[in-house]
Structure formats: structure tokens, C-alpha cells
From TrEMBL:
UniProt superkingdom: Eukaryota
Spans traversing the lipid bilayer: 26-49
Record's protein name: Uncharacterized protein
InterPro entries in the cross-refs: Nod_factor_sulfotransferase, P-loop_NTPase
SUPFAM superfamilies according to UniProt: P-loop containing nucleoside triphosphate hydrolases (SSF52540)
Annotated keywords: Membrane, Transmembrane, Transmembrane helix
Length: 343
């Protein structure tokens, strides 16, 4: 029947007739097929599709998963990865969003990431670029990113449920700023969304950083260094240490950090993004729901075992508070001196 319909469609090209030998019919059939393939390939070339075989493949693979609920302007952010390392069959048509948390050390991103990972459909793979090897050049960076977004990166963030958002945590000083042009290009090409997470109060961040550096050397928790803790007892031990802040370089340190953040947001301003501040999240957990909405995953209560280390007001956290106060009052950073929050 198929053959019959075929001849009917190509009537103009085929000499019909019961008298034709079987061999001749087979020959004509082959000729028609070759001709069809040729016409098709000419069309593809003209459409410029052949020079981009990846796109062609994607279109073919994605066709069966077309989801009418996804508005057309979101299509570039919707992916159907096919991992090399396992079969994603049962989740094949679960759309996946790609994200990267862009942050700085001691800005609450560890806590934030554990919150995200408590969602069954989110998999955030940590600071993959803490390894110098992986961020040594742009090809190494892209290889690592591809692996994450292809769902082939193995980490404790792996889920048994269908992943609907996959990403990583990328610190500004881990090759992101040096390679910003190529990385922004990559984000745009692959439809990656960014979650900027910074601190409003850079002075508090500095205190946390100095205290963390101190613990790296002194290992106050039974001889191990911990950047994050899971109990108030551990938090209290770490918070006992009050750093001295070198006031002669304080303003330039704050200015440098501030510029780093502004530059980063400028470099990636055309990438789809959301900007979060740690202080806002601490004060208003509902803000986390904005993140879930941004990632297009269903709302859900998020939990983390992390316990905040520095909970007291700033004057109680710094050894030479009076010096610090004097150096910042009357400057553009004076607001850092008073901004505290209730917990
Ligand atoms: C990039 O870095 C990787 C891993 O460190 C290395 O193997 C590769 O040779 C580097 N490529 C270039 C072009 O420098
Ligand atoms: C989340 O995972 C569950 C379990 O695998 C799955 O049924 C559901 O479709 C996923 N949700 C989304 C938004 O992908
Ligand atoms: C240190 O170890 C002791 C004995 O194992 C334990 O009781 C204590 O809770 C530990 N302290 C911290 C801060 O982990
Ligand atoms: C404070 O910073 C200045 C300028 O960088 C440096 O010369 C000085 O040694 C530092 N003081 C201390 C106590 O580290
Ligand atoms: C908390 O955050 C949510 C989501 O952004 C917002 O709608 C709400 O107004 C915030 N509440 C307060 C008290 O700021």
C-alpha cells in the first residue's frame, strides 16, 4: 500500500504500467528516492541548516516533547538534555532550565545552594571551578559547563527525580571575570540564566572572610576547618573569634569588592538573570519562591541544615570596632556600620 501511495504521489516522475519488468520498477524507485534525497538536501543547504547539524538534531529530538504550555519567548531557555552517561528515558520530555549561581565567597551562596538542592527537581553541582585545571582556559571551562548542562556531571546534587533545573555555583574570582566575553556568549547560545547572589553589607562579608581565614589556620572545631556549620554550638565556637580589620586598606578593599560586583553585573546584563541579596533572603524567606519562579520549577518549601555563624551586631564582631567606625563614618560606606538584621 505504501508503495502504491508513493507512486501516486510521484506520478509525474514514474512511468506506470503493468508491462514494466520488476527490475525496471526497482530501478525507477531507486532513481526517485535518490532524486528526493537530492532535492531535500538542496533545500536544507538553502535554508542553511546543513552547516549547523547540531540544531537540526535538536529540532528532530525535541519535536515529540513540544509543550504548548511553554510560551514562544521561553523556548531558548528550555532544554531536553540527552546525557551520555545514563538514560533519561522517563524524564526525556521534562524540560530542563540551565542556571548558574554567580556569587562571591562568604556571601551566603553555600547556604543558598543547599536550599536549592532541597528541591526534588533542582540539581546545583557546587563550585566546579574551584579547580584551577577546569578554569585554566575557555575550552576547559566550556567542556565543564557542557558536562553540567548535559546532565553528565556527577555530584552529590544528583537527583532520583526528574531534574527541571541544573546548574552550578560560580565565584567571580574563579575565571568568570577573565573570560566574561566568551562565557556570556556561551550563556546566550545555550540559554543559561544567572542568579546573582551578593551581600549588601560588604563589611559583614569582610568580617566573615577574616574569621574564615583565621579558622582555616587554627581549625577551631576539633582540629578541622569548617566554612559552614550545622549546629549552633559550632557556630558559637567560630563566632568567638573577633578579627582585627586593617583600617588603612579598608576603604580600598571595600571599593575593590564593590567594583568587582558592579563589573560582573555589567558584563552579564544581557544574560537572563535575577539579582538577590543575602540580607534580603535572610529576612524574607519568601524571596526564595521568586527564585523557584525564575527557574520555572514548582513552589516548594526549601530547607538547609546550615546555621548562621555571625548573628550578633557588627560592633560585637570586630576587635577594633572604634577604629573601623572612625574610618568609615562620613564615607560612602557609612551605611555598612549600622545595617543589622534581626534573626
Ligand atoms: C586548556 O586547559 C586544559 C586543561 O588544563 C589543557 O589540557 C589544554 O591543553 C588547554 N588548552 C589550551 C588551548 O590552552
Ligand atoms: C519533578 O520531579 C518529579 C519526579 O520525578 C516529576 O514527576 C516532575 O515532573 C518534576 N517536575 C518538573 C517541574 O519537572
Ligand atoms: C569535639 O569532639 C568531642 C568528642 O568527640 C565532642 O564531644 C564535641 O562535641 C566536639 N566539638 C565540636 C565543636 O565538634
Ligand atoms: C595594613 O595595611 C597596610 C597597607 O596595605 C600595610 O602596610 C600594613 O602592614 C597593614 N597592617 C597590618 C597590621 O597588617
Ligand atoms: C517577601 O518577599 C516576597 C517575594 O519577593 C514579597 O512579595 C514580599 O512583599 C516580601 N515581604 C516583605 C515583608 O518584605
Amino acid at each position: 500500500m505504501v508503495e502504491h501511495r508513493f507512486f501516486f504521489n510521484k506520478e509525474a516522475l514514474v512511468i506506470k504500467g503493468p508491462k514494466k519488468s520488476h527490475a525496471l520498477r526497482m530501478f525507477m524507485l531507486a532513481a526517485v528516492m535518490i532524486c528526493g534525497v537530492y532535492i531535500c538536501s538542496v533545500c536544507l543547504t538553502q535554508l542553511g541548516i546543513q552547516s549547523r547539524p547540531r540544531k537540526l538534531k535538536m529540532e528532530i529530538m525535541e519535536a515529540p516533547c513540544k509543550n504548548p504550555a511553554i510560551p514562544y519567548y521561553e523556548i531558548p531557555y528550555v532544554h531536553y538534555p540527552e546525557p551520555n552517561t545514563y538514560s533519561r528515558d522517563e524524564c526525556a520530555c521534562t524540560p530542563v532550565r540551565f542556571f548558574s549561581i554567580v556569587s562571591m565567597q562568604r556571601s551566603g551562596s553555600g547556604w543558598f545552594e543547599t536550599l536549592l538542592n532541597s528541591h526534588v527537581n533542582i540539581s546545583s553541582n557546587g563550585e566546579i571551578f574551584s579547580s584551577k585545571e577546569r578554569r585554566g582556559n575557555i575550552s576547559a571551562i566550556i567542556r565543564a559547563l557542557d558536562k553540567v548542562y548535559n546532565l553528565d556531571w556527577y555530584s552529590s546534587a544528583a537527583k532520583n527525580d526528574c531534574t527541571a533545573a541544573v546548574g552550578l555555583k560560580w565565584m567571580l574570582n574563579q575565571g568568570l571575570m577573565e573570560n566574561h566575553v566568551k562565557v556570556a556568549e556561551y550563556f546566550s547560545r545555550r540559554g543559561v540564566s544567572l542568579i546573582f547572589l551578593f551581600r549588601r553589607n560588604l563589611l559583614r562579608r569582610l568580617v566573615s572572610q577574616l574569621a574564615n581565614d583565621h579558622d582555616r589556620n587554627t581549625k577551631q572545631l576539633n582540629g578541622t576547618h569548617k566554612a559552614h556549620v550545622h549546629s549552633t554550638n559550632e557556630a558559637n565556637i567560630l563566632a568567638r573569634y573577633k578579627p582585627r580589620i586593617n583600617t588603612s586598606e579598608l576603604i580600598s578593599t571595600l571599593r575593590h569588592t564593590h567594583k568587582f560586583v558592579t563589573d560582573a553585573m555589567g558584563y552579564f546584563r544581557n544574560t537572563r538573570h535575577i539579582v538577590l541579596y543575602y540580607e534580603d533572603l535572610v529576612q524574607n524567606r519568601t524571596k526564595l519562591m521568586d527564585v523557584l519562579e525564575f527557574l520555572r520549577v514548582p513552589p516548594r518549601k526549601l530547607v538547609s541544615r546550615h546555621v548562621k555563624i555571625h548573628t550578633r551586631p557588627l560592633p560585637k564582631l570586630v576587635e577594633n570596632w572604634d577604629d573601623v567606625y572612625r574610618s568609615l563614618e562620613g564615607t560612602e560606606y557609612r551605611s555598612f556600620l549600622n545595617a543589622n538584621y534581626d534573626l
